[in-house]
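Reproducibility note. Readers wishing to regenerate the assembly model reported in the main text can use the exact inputs given here. Chain order matters: entities are listed in the order in which they were concatenated for prediction.
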Amino acid sequence: MTAATVLDYDEVIERFDPVLGLEVHVELNTHTKMFCGCPTTFGAEPNTQVCPTCLGLPGSLPVVNRVAVESAMRIGLALNCEIAPWCRFARKNYFYPDMPKNFQTSQYDEPIAFNGSLDVTLEDGTVVTVAIERAHMEEDTGKSLHVGGATGRIHGADHSLLDYNRAGVPLIEIVTKPIEGMGERAPEVARAYVSTLRDLLRALDVSDVRMDQGSLRCDANVSLMSKGATEFGTRTETKNVNSLRSVERAVRYEMTRQAAILVEGGSILQETRHFQEATGTTSAGRRKETSEDYRYFPEPDLVPIAPPAEWVEQLRATLPEMPSERRKRIQADWQLTDLELRDLVNAGAVDLVAATVDAGASPAEARAWWVSYLSQEANSRGLELAALPITPPQVARVSALVAEGKLTNKLAREVIDGVLAGEGEPDEVVEKRGLAVVSDDSALYAAIDEALAAQPDVADKIRGGKVAAAGAIVGAVMKTTKGQADAKRVRELILERCT
Amino acid sequence: MPNISRDEVAHLARLARLAVTEDELDTFAGQLDVILQSVARVGEVAAEDIPPTSHAVPLTNVFREDLVRPGLTQQQALAGAPAAEDGRFRVPRILGEEA
Amino acid sequence: MSDLTRLTAAELADKIQKKDVSAVEVAQAHLDRIAAVDKTVNAFLYVDTERALSAARAVDEDVAAGREPASPLAGVPLALKDVFVMEGAPTTCGSKILEGWSPPYDATVTRKLLEAGVVILGKTNMDEFAMGSSTENSAFGPSRNPWDLDRIPGGSGGGSSASLAAFEAPLAIGTDTGGSIRQPGSVTGTVGVKPTYGGVSRYGLVAFSSSLDQGGPCARTVLDAALLHEVIGGHDPLDSTSIDAPVPPVVAAARDGARGDLSGMRIGIVTEFQGDGYQAGVTAAFVQAVETLKGLGAEVVEVSCPHFDYALPAYYLIAPSEASSNLARFDAMRYGLRTGDDSANSAEQVMALTREAGFGAEVKRRIMIGTYALSSGYYDAYYGQAQKVRTLITQDFEKAFESVDVLISPTTPTTAFRIGERADDPMAMYLADLCTIPANLAGTPAMSVPAGLSDEDGLPVGLQVMAPALAEPRMYKVAAAFEAARDAASGGALIHRVPELEA
Ligand SMILES: [Mg+2]
Ligand SMILES: [Zn+2]
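Running the prediction on these inputs yields the following structure tokens for the assembly.
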């Protein structure tokens, strides 16, 4: 495959306006699948979470999972959508081996939620309102493993192996209206949208939102309009975008690739493309020899969903504080500057800090730990902050030990390192590493007396009222106690000894 | 209205994943035409303002609770498979979308 | 031939409970009969001798222990249409494409039968995926009509109707999408009932047309059908379209009807379902039936249902459309037949080759019609319009039932036709379901009860009785009253005039 030519990004922006459309598929974290009672646990042995219904066996029938419908409505409400008073499932007919019935039970022209919006804050604080077209319910497909040829690749494979554990897992597909006028910020907007949506879904507790495990998947539609044009250009749909960073890269790459074609007088093929993580490029999918014809029709095995207004209002009442509102409140409560809030948000530390505060730490302490010390740690390990092997209660405990004078800041960092290294709870690390502050005054007196005796001239100066000279004795005591004494206390005791 | 061509029959057969023979293309073109001509009569009566009916006794909001129900074992799931390998259904190579 | 095979289900159940006969003897008598005549009739695709006898033994143990019978049909043998799954028994739906498939689960109907102590003898022949009116579309050869072995036993449930008329089973299960219980009942002189859509669970019924399919009882008497109806009916949480209401009291209605009094009952003859195109002997038997009903005290009037004329075209859009989608799962990937897997062919090619080899002509034809009717650009003109026709037909029924309690018509325009006679003419074949389809489109209940024999060929004619949704008791009452009067007039049950089969 030869690499496509791309146009310099600045030139792209000079000559074209990008238009985005983002389709996000969210796997719900319900206990069971959309239409059957099979569990949805990730990573089970192949074909052990299946039944006649999700295997599409002859005679089987679907029954809708109530909680999945509630999750769909809560997502719709959180996205400021209207909830359909009456809607249905439809069959989307096409043959593919990972789809047991060779139709996907989805929603077509009657989605459960539509006409919404999501406010997205960019890194510099700019707020962009993304219009939401619809959020609809559907079911996931199984997973194929391609054997032979290049490992795991479909192209050149000899045969494929199918696991239907994922088939029928509830999905919500969230589709934006075209996002226009973003100019050079289009890739950033795409990333920020997915990130904001992910935070929202996490707050709703409806999904694991793990892009790496596929519980959150984004398809990016990108097209370019020549400056001044009024009609959208031909779009491509890029799939296989598995991280926030990839969303941004994929959009940016498609813009430069399409622009290069257009400036040469070529035309864009409407097609599905695949993002290649390794190269940061997209490549064309197989072109279908026949045009898509999904032959949608209302699913006759299911009856319509007509949520009564009371049900919708009950669900609305369960909505948690939205991440954007929460940030505003946190900024006020913790008295943060805009910059401090942004740092907190960009570090992905809002929830962690809040949980640490809930566990008893002060906001300033909690922020200090997560935003400075632990963020660096996460960076160096190539992990997301939340993936570090330490919990907010553990950080809060360390913070409490400092406040109680049982740890110095330096010792506290060692305790945190110990927890990260898997040595156990903070108190266990203190114990095992022998990190507790020497707070036994009699032990300190002994060390002080020893130091005063060793440096009689300094002792005399202190006795003579030169309080500043005490520093030398403090230093000596800290040395003998291996830094595990509270310097302030040591100083007090020295002055007491010398008066 | 209908006047189904051989090409149209071939297109339908592709959509329906039927490897029809040349003979069948002709037979089906003729028969589908006759059938569709006669069923096109439904257009005579059904006006704009008539709502469609899909079920005799109209039901809405039929749900199940989100509770796990025992399903099939891997062995049961694969018992009917034309071919299986490593706990999975073995199928011929898939002409996929990924290049 | 053992006398046991000539008894009704109600009589057999009674004798078993009274220990006049054991359930094992009853099962064995029917198994023997199958062994003797089924080479000729070809009603069964699979006979499960082992499990039938063990189910019968369990019933005998209950009787011996003095336990309450599991149901009023405990110990009675039954023939199950091969469109319902039963764990461990091959299910083919009359198709090669399901060759070798043994389902890992029970249909709800199957489970209810087993729990009721009904003895399932085996699976019966049918038109492939229930598409047809003759069982000629079975991949395993046609079943034959015991009244005349050169003729069809109806379809798609021809195996079930033939098994009843051949005295291989006193009870059978059918499914009725466009008439596949009632039309076979009509041409074999047996009783067939299509309940209200949603009255009998479709879980485990291999779908032909989801919005039309309905399982129901087949028997030789109205009471037997009612007893079976109560066993298989009722709400099922595994079928979203199942009606959450008790089974209508059809047994009581059948017993009530058998007393022979229909005074106060208003019966409507469907104007559209008579005249040209109806075989003379069918019309004569129907007219005679109307006289009988009047004689029982019923008031009979004519009622026009103008949109019934559009039922057939609407049906031949809706059913194939849904079928084209329902049958997509037969793709050689997870179960059933696989052909062309030679490592050169892709999954897509193997799917197409398998479906080409595994499906018969009628199934392919309907898949093609359905694929066409659902295609973008055609949906509104076809499937969409047909769904509107359903509304008009439902309105015709509603209007009719404002003035009458039940509607009647011949079940099918002709008596059993000869095997092969309509095989090459799909449109002629489709006419067999002319009178039965409106009830499928409206989802209302309807049944066929033997009316008499046609003068010109001596073959059975069926009387169709149609009722409003969930009003099955009315039609059972009318059918039972009619059955009693007809039997009395002709000196015994019509079914006993079936010619003796050469064993
Ligand atoms: Mg989708
Ligand atoms: Zn399942």
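We highlight two features of this model. Chain C touches chain A at residues 84-85, 91, 93, 98, 101, 103-105, 107, 202-207, 209-211, 237-241, 321-322, 324-325, 328-331, 333-335, 343, 347-348, 351, 371, 374-376, 379, 383 (CB under 8 Å). Chain C has 16 helices and eleven strands.
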